[in-house]
């Protein structure tokens, strides 16, 4: 009996570990894509012609048609893998919040921020990708038109939530898998906030640039 219980526990732990690894891998893939996307769209700051040129390459190679649905699938998988640990019910959230206040631990609050931003990002990114896919090809003018027609608050909310979720997520993956340790933690905390600040700042400047493009 003890042996069977032990084997069941080991099997459950192994499955849980693999699920956690899958969540981390999909999260890192999405983070890398998000940073590349930010640089791609941010090229409009230099010139709308540069962004349009890059968009043309994506169009003729059919990358935009292929990558969009793949990213949505990865995002859905990542969300489903992560939601199992989220306090999705009001009672669960209330209990977690009370524990967070009592513990007064920074990582606990960061996890809460990550969980809240996960839901917001999932909803807003789904709407964003759907809108893009329904209005191909991608162009600086099309993006500027959306920004100038009332999407500014939408993109600012998405920008801030993605920045926080991305930065906190990468930091927690680093801690979980031993890349970030006690001796280098303070350095990586600073790097994480610098990454978030860079991402949000780049996004804000990009939005401002779209506002002044003639459409």
Q: Explain this structure to me?
A:
It is built from seven helices and no strands. The chain is globular and about 60 Å long. It is 85% helix and 0% strand. It has a single domain (19-211), classed as 3 helical TM bundles of succinate and fumarate reductases (Up-down Bundle), CATH 1.20.1300. The termini are far apart. The chain is mostly helical. It has helices spanning 2-42, 48-60, 63-83, 90-103, 106-134, 140-176, 185-211.
List the helices and strands and how they pair.
Blueprint: H1 2-42, H2 48-60, H3 63-83, H4 90-103, H5 106-134, H6 140-176, H7 185-211
Please give a quick description of this structure.
It contains 7 helices and no strands. The protein is mostly helical and 215 residues long.
The sequence of SSEs as H and E is HHHHHHH
Inertia-based shape = globular
Count of DSSP-assigned helices = 7
What is the CA-based Rg, rounded? 20 Å
Q: How much helix, percentage-wise, in residues?
A: over 70%
Mean pLDDT: 83
Unreliable runs, pLDDT <50, ≥5 residues?
A: none
Distance, first to last CA: 73 Å
This entry's quaternary arrangement is single chain
Output the CATH topology.
3 helical TM bundles of succinate and fumarate reductases
Reported CATH architecture: Up-down Bundle
Biggest β-sheet: count, sense, barrel? none
- Strand elements, count: 0
Give the helix/strand class. mainly alpha
